[in-house]
Specification:
The protein is mostly helical. The chain has four helices and no strands.
Length: about 100
């Protein structure tokens, strides 16, 4: 393992996770060895490895989409869906009021 990783680790920063994931990918250690050495849940370490691979794949695309742009698009979609749901709810309440179904308000 990397010498910097041998210290007693209290907090797993992105930099430390990256170092461990690189050690696993490079075959310097395994998920089970790392889990035992650092008292980590093996599924958590496997998740870090999977996230690292996904991030690497995205970084190597010819035009990787910016994370901020992805979140903004997703937020816009959610805001639009929320607005549509609110309009539908108001329309249903208005219809119930017009039909005299006061208990549906």
């Amino acid at each position: 393992m990397s010498p910097s990783m041998e210290d007693d680790i209290k907090r797993w920063t992105a930099k430390r996770k990256t170092a461990l994931v690189l050690d696993i990918i490079q075959g310097k250690t395994t998920v089970s060895e790392a889990s035992r050495a650092y008292d980590l849940n093996p599924s958590e370490v496997e998740q870090w490895v999977d996230e690292g691979k996904r991030g690497m794949e995205n970084a190597l695309r010819s035009k990787p989409p910016e994370i901020k742009e992805q979140y903004e698009r997703q937020l816009n979609d959610l805001q639009q869906a929320y607005g549509e749901a609110m309009l539908e709810l108001r329309a249903r309440k208005k219809l119930a009021s017009l039909l005299g179904n006061e208990d549906e308000k």
